[in-house]
């Protein structure tokens, strides 16, 4: 794929590319935006270095792709409720996002994508892993594809944001509230078709998928555990090393991600804008 206004350098065979030649803090012309959008669709997650984004510019870039999400359980930045401040202080033990997941799959219309920007980066560690769910689906056997096509699964915030969930644990610099017992669950296809590319992707994740529709948790568990392990095989992944001013934009419709928690004793401060999506089909 050729691009007119930016340089695009893939970072792995499965997904991910670094974008050069774009200043997201400036006013993007339509041609540059179109190239960035195409690179996003082509590579599933795209990375930028040395960006200087105010909260307004961060939101402005996100709004080029759609309306912005306000997280139901995490308080947004003062004056900017659409921006989630993801902070781990040196004394915190748990990080936020420390497990494989797809953002907001517990909502009726899950997120299109998430745009994460590095403010304060530890001297080592804190990388983010990404896994292509296109590749996860495409490498399944024909028999497994036939079994999964047409299946739906229930997604809910109950386990992750309930009182014992990792995401709901108290952190010194983040205001997270617990999901109530009657938190809703929504049915999503186990294999979803990307609305822009038409490609099929596996769409279950261990953070928010509870069980297959019409089955018990016990009945669902063996197949879900196989799919979780298969979806994050090493050859489907890429890894991003953060620097101050780095930005990652990933497609939650076809990507899972995992924030590593290997920088104990150091501070990490990120800002995330999440673009609303549509009903998975």
Rg estimate, integer Å: 18 Å
Percentage of β-strand residues = 25-35%
Alpha-beta content class:
alpha+beta
Distance between the termini: 27 Å
Order of helices and strands: EEHEHEEEHHEHEEEEHEEEE
Shape: globular
Return the average pLDDT rounded to an integer: 95
Strand order of the largest sheet: 1-2-3-13-5-15-4
Count the DSSP helices: 6
Question: How many strands?
Answer: 15
- Low-pLDDT ranges: none
Question: How many strands, which pairing sense, and closed or not: the largest β-sheet?
Answer: 7 strands, mixed
**In percent, how helical is the residue content?**
10-25%
Written overview of the protein:
The chain is of the alpha+beta class. It is built from six helices and 15 strands. It has helices at residues 30-43, 55-63, 133-138, 142-148, 158-161, 217-231; strands at residues 7-10, 17-20, 45-48, 83-88, 113-120, 128-132, 152-156, 185-189, 191-193, 200-202, 209-212, 237-240, 247-251, 255-259, 268-275. The two termini are 27 Å apart.
């Amino acid at each position: 794929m050729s691009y007119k206004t930016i340089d695009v350098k893939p970072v792995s065979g499965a997904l991910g590319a670094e974008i050069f030649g774009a200043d997201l803090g400036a006013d993007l012309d339509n041609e540059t935006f179109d190239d960035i959008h195409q690179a996003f669709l082509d590579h599933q997650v795209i990375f930028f270095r040395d960006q200087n984004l105010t909260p307004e510019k961060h939101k402005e870039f996100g709004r080029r792709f759609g309306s912005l999400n306000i997280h139901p359980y995490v308080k947004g930045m003062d004056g900017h409720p659409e921006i989630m401040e993801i902070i781990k202080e040196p004394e915190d033990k748990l990080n936020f996002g420390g497990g494989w997941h797809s953002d907001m799959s517990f909502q009726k219309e899950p997120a299109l994508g998430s745009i994460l920007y590095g403010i304060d980066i530890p001297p080592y560690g804190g990388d983010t892993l990404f896994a292509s769910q296109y590749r996860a689906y495409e490498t399944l056997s024909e028999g497994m594809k036939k079994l999964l096509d047409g299946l739906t699964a229930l997604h809910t915030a109950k386990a992750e944001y309930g009182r014992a969930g990792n995401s709901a644990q108290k952190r010194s610099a983040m205001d997270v509230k617990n999901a109530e017992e009657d938190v809703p669950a929504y049915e999503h296809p186990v294999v979803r078709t990307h609305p822009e590319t038409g490609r099929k992707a596996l769409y279950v994740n261990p953070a928010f998928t509870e069980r297959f529709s019409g089955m018990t948790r016990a009945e669902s568990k063996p197949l879900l555990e196989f799919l979780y392990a298969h979806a994050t095989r090493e050859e489907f992944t890429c890894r991003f090393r953060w620097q101050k001013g780095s930005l990652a934009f990933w497609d939650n419709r076809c990507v899972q991600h995992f924030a590593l928690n290997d920088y104990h004793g150091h501070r990490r401060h990120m800002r995330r804008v999440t673009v609303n999506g549509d009903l998975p089909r």
